[in-house]
Design brief:
This protein has 24 helices and 23 strands. With 585 residues, the chain is an alpha/beta fold. It has three domains: 240 residues, no CATH class; 167 residues, 3-Layer(aba) Sandwich (Rossmann fold), CATH 3.40.50; 62 residues, Arc Repressor Mutant, subunit A. The strands form six sheets. A seven-stranded mixed beta sheet has the order 2-3-1-7-8-10-9, covered by helices on one side. Helix 2 packs across helix 3 and helix 3 crosses helix 6. The longest helix has 27 residues.
């Protein structure tokens, strides 16, 4: 593993003895272009994470109010811990962005801090050897917003102010070193020093780190504070635990997410799981109602018993009674043996009734009786059978409206609506998309024995911006289709995903290398520009050339996918195929 050393400030240089700070940071374009502005929803994204752009005055107000309400110590603990957590996230992000180039990967840490507007890190002395566990860093924090805020509101004091920045540096290098690394601010403009300066080294190399360690609400620092001996840590194990992503621990169950909408649903699922209450999941088709139902069952006291699923819309009316309640031998022609219904099979466990609104009124009446009396009577039988079943129902329509329209029994509605849980559509849970993409990619790569290399940046941006009328089910189908279409070891592009006439997302803007906004994805074509360019030529048939230009641009933007190009031009694939043969053969 190469060593990284510094001979002079503000520098990185690849020399014979490793990486050094000599020629400035690598170009930040590869990082800045991952900051995207989505005009259709007013969302701002940094890679696969939604962010909020706030003025410094709002950040200042929050910091001051927290200090006023909780005191400097608690406020410092919060901002330091937040910086530490963000530093770890940025460390993972830098590896993803810049691969194995250690020079560029390490540089991404300060650059990601700068992109947040917190200030810039200027390395003064730098020595890192990950293999040997060596880290010894001295750096200046230039333009620290935290120091500015402190001076403006408190003047010069005896405490340092760059809490987030020291926390971020600690989290960033702790993740890479696989053991706790602590950055101390030894000079701060808030304390009257001419600059803000910090030093960083492994926690176990400090003689007395309790003073700063108490501000890190992270397991490895908490263990240090309780034992006062950093040697008690197990760095490698800690690193492996913290590198695990949510999707790694749940790779075969595609119920995963980080969005507020997902977390609210899971919180409600956990609250009701250990009860016997009837639960009604409400959400559009494809949002994952059955997955959430399975999670509820798995968390319940009935998890050792079966969960039986019934798609009410898939069972014909004349078979519904026998399917749900069972049948005795000879009950009708063809009933050659007795068999239990779904209620009996789910006895002691859970019965999941999907698309409950599709039941006919007579079937609703029979279901209501079972829910009221907890007994079933097989078709053609005379005995009642006691059942202990927890009901989970799901619907993609508003049952109250169905009741008002006389299509659903009001008494059954109130029996089912004991604990309703609304599952938001995927377009309201965009933070969950990257995790779902990874899970589905693993699933279908294994199922179809394929080895795609992953997704292109344009594909990720398109998937994050697409409206998802079919929700998670549509995403799953799209990923499976892409896995089949893409070549071995190749990246999945938009032309592998959007192949069935889907409407591609509206314009997305990102920050280019000059720090200004530029469009990085557009679902449309700049017709005006093309028209002017064609009309400026001396050709005698501008309309034909105009058509050719439009078709060429549309196909280029669609990555060669004719169906997507046709959709962007407002025509069918057949119509575009005809023009391609006519104009380009």
């Amino acid at each position: 593993m190469p060593k990284i050393r510094a001979q002079s400030p503000s520098s990185y240089k690849l020399g014979q003895d490793g990486l050094r700070f000599d020629d400035g940071y690598p170009n930040i374009e590869d990082i800045s272009r991952h900051l995207r502005f989505e005009s259709s929803t007013g969302s701002v994204w940094q890679n696969d994470e939604k962010v909020v752009v706030l003025p410094v005055t709002m950040y200042e107000s929050f910091r001051l109010k927290l200090i006023e309400s909780s005191g400097h110590e608690e406020a410092r603990k919060l901002f330091t811990t937040q910086g530490y957590e963000m530093g770890q996230i940025d460390a993972m992000r830098s590896r993803k962005l810049r691969g194995e180039n250690l020079h560029a990967v390490i540089a991404a840490g300060p650059q990601l801090v700068a992109l947040k507007g917190m200030g810039m890190i200027d390395p003064l002395a730098f020595k890192v050897d990950i293999a040997e566990g060596i880290v010894n860093i001295e750096a200046a924090a230039i333009g620290s917003v935290e120091a500015d805020i402190h001076i403006q509101n408190f003047g010069i004091s005896d405490t340092s102010a760059c809490w987030f920045m020291t926390g971020h540096a600690s989290g960033f290098f702790s993740w890479y070193m696989g053991k706790p690394v602590l950055f101390r601010e030894v000079e701060c403009r808030a304390m009257g020093s001419p600059r803000c300066r910090m030093v960083g080294k492994p926690l176990d190399e400090y003689d007395n780190a309790e003073k700063e360690a108490k501000y890190f609400n992270a397991p490895e620092f908490l263990r240090y504070r309780s034992s006062k001996r950093a040697a008690a840590h197990k760095p490698k194990k800690w690193q492996d635990e913290n590198k695990q992503t949510p999707s790694d621990s749940n790779s075969e169950e595609f119920l995963t997410g980080t969005s507020p909408g997902y977390k609210v649903v899971m919180q409600m699922v956990k609250k009701v799981a250990d009860t016997n209450a009837t639960v009604l999941f409400v959400g559009r088709t494809g949002v994952g109602k059955e997955f959430f139902s399975q999670a509820l069952h798995n968390l319940s006291k009935r998890s050792e018993k079966p969960m039986i699923a019934v798609n009410c819309a898939a069972i014909p009316d004349d078979l519904l009674e026998s399917e749900l309640f069972g049948v005795e031998r000879g009950a009708y022609t063809g009933a050659t043996e007795s068999r239990p219904g779904r209620f009996e099979r789910a006895n002691g466990g859970t019965l999941f009734l999907d698309e409950i609104s599709s039941l006919t009124l007579p079937a609703q009446g029979k279901l209501l009786r079972i829910l009221q009396e907890s007994v079933v009577e097989r078709l053609g039988g005379t005995e009642t059978i006691k059942v202990d079943v927890r009901i989970i129902a799901a619907t993609n329509v508003d049952l109250r409206e169905e009741v008002e329209a006389k299509r659903f029994r009001e008494d059954l509605f109130f029996r089912l609506n004991v604990f309703p849980i609304h599952i938001p559509p995927l377009r309201s849970r965009r933070e969950d998309i990257p995790l779902l993409m990874s899970a589905f990619l693993r699933k279908y790569s294994k199922a179809h024995d394929r080895s795609p290399a992953g997704f292109t940046e344009e594909a990720v941006e398109a998937l994050l911006s697409y409206e998802w009328p079919g929700n998670i089910r549509e995403l799953e189908n799209m990923i499976e289709r892409a896995v089949i279409l893409v070549g071995e070891k190749e990246l999945i592009h938009t032309n592998h995903l959007f192949t069935s006439g889907e409407h591609l997302p509206e314009d997305i803007f990102s920050v280019n290398g000059e720090g200004t906004l530029s469009a990085t994805w557009s679902s449309g074509v700049n017709w005006d520009e093309i028209a002017h360019r064609v009309l400026e030529t001396d050709d005698d048939s501008p309309l034909q050339d105009f058509e050719k230009a439009l078709i060429k641009v549309a196909i280029d933007k669609a990555g060669g996918n004719v169906s997507s190009a046709a959709a962007s031009l407002g025509m069918t694939r057949g119509q575009l195929d005809y023009r391609l043969k006519k104009d380009f053969e």
